[in-house]
Amino acid sequence: MKFVVAALLAGLIILGGLKLFSRKLLYFPTRVSRPRLAYLKTSFDQVGEISIPIGEKGHLHGWLIQKDMKNLPTLFYFGGNAEEVSLNIEDFVQKINANVVMVNYRGFGLSHGSAHEAALKSDALVIYDFMADKYKISPDNAVAWGRSIGSSMASYLALERKLSRLILTCPFDSIEAVAAHYYPEWLVKMVLKDKHRTIDFSSRIKGSTLVLASKADEVIPSKNTLALYESLTCTKKLVYIDGAGHNTISEFDAYHGAVNDFLAR
Question: 2-264 is classed in which CATH architecture?
């Protein structure tokens, strides 16, 4: 009997520990190095730093690529769960026909705080409102773009601010469903704090949506991407990037080409 009780207690302790650290298993904050910062500050005339206040003393740090704020659309980009967004600057400057706002999540880059779902979604609205007010960006000329876990924040922003367009790279219906592909469902439900259930509101998104995906995605199962895509009731298009994987999809010319074609429509 004592053994059974001890085993149960040990199990509860393990589950409690997993729940406590579930966010550390989901978000992998990546900092930006000083040499990288120095390079970015001196190498691109179109690129400037952004600092957006959150809370009393914190701020979010990121970048604005200004090409033509009046005539080109402005993309609000949300990266993956281990992505320091400035790593996209070279590609976005050279390959994307749009202005781009890219801000690091809490704890990433030079942004303050700790990442969790409620804060990241709230931050998405703060980022948009701050930049839209400062640069007079209208919802008709704004595009939310999310990659992997960033698809959760981009979708939420597109819904809440009624943006005209949305781009989703390797998205999913929910992190809960993705995790259940790899681990027992009962365990996922017990320990996962942030579930990112885009499927709960995706049918209410009105903006035209482009989904970019890989049939060989080794992280997000195709069924989870398709479940989200099928739930969308807006004008939508699904483009598979041949030969790409989850982490290599942005290395293909067809990827940026599909984005530019979508923006030009």
Answer: 3-Layer(aba) Sandwich (3.40)
